[in-house]
Model the fold of this input.
Amino acid sequence: MSEPITRREGAAVLVGVDFGLPHFDADLEELGLLAQTAGLTPVERITCKRKAPDAALFVGSGKADEIKAAADLHGASEVVFDQALSPAQQRNLERHLGVAVYDRTFLILEIFAQRARSHEGKLQVELARLQYLSTRLVRRWSHLERQRGGIGARGGPGETQIELDRRMIGDAIRRTRERLAKVQRQRGTQRRQRERRDTFNISLVGYTNAGKSSLFNALVKARAYAADQLFATLDTTTRHLYLGETGRRVSISDTVGFIRELPHGLVDAFKATLQEAVDADLLLHVVDTSNPHHPEQIEEVQRVLAEIGADQVPQLLVFNKLDALEPERRPVRMSDEMELDGVRVPRLFVSAHTGEGLPALREELARRAAAGAPGAEPIAPPAQTELQGVPH
Done:
């Protein structure tokens, strides 16, 4: 008689399905970082190719059996998919595999819930989680099958428990939206006050873990939380940056990082946080120069900026983490231009860690602030750069 399998709390099997779409992460590297950030320990990575998702099990019964065998072998207590699962697929997989099943959306929501610190951030996460939960009422609860009814019963005669739960979640979503709208009005008042003071507003945007918070700290000598992990910063932090060259201060904001397939619920819920980018005079688009996938990350940031209406805000590309590049991949020049959505955008190379390139960045910010608005003054074309291993 075989011994029962001992499940290891937090041990997770990662699963990715290649549907022939671009940017498939064959190594599940980003999903692994997400899992670790959420407190899980990846013990196995499984990938497969399909033309379309299986309606019942997403991966088909044969691959589901392989995933179950891997979970049993490693004693994994969770299986995490790199794509979004439908409620029915998630329920069927949990029954088939005998362990908890999560998707990429749930993982990101969990990380956001762990990291949110401000009142607004917590409300935004709560709203996104409630919206996600409202579609998952079929998940594990056996009591959802039972009818509740009779005289005096909650919900009235014949109302099912699932209807009650759905109504309760709907009420919670409505209350959270009302509280969030109040906070957003307060933020709007603060923003208008800055505008009346004729403040030049700069927002840092970029893919998660590009080093935005480290650059923010280096520029304003702040102590915003920064770490080599995904979504280290969720709440917008705004500080004043004094530019001695112009004798004036500018307002600079560190915003939440973007990520591939960011759940739409989070984009909607974090509209107020990302509004800092929409209302900025200049976006510092921070890029992790050392990441081999940074061209795809730039595309994803541009897509989200377009989604929130910030794609027309002037940008300055800041290729960060210069210190992490191998000597043969370092740029020949520290500034040049790069084509972004058909527009030539100035680019600077810096290292927030060592401070290399930061004086030139401050000079560029001072020049733009002195002009009053980006584009009010012609940008002198920088010398074209010959780069070693860094794409134009």
The two ends are 63 Å apart (CA to CA). The longest strand covers residues 8-18. The CA atoms of residues 150 and 349 lie 70 Å apart.
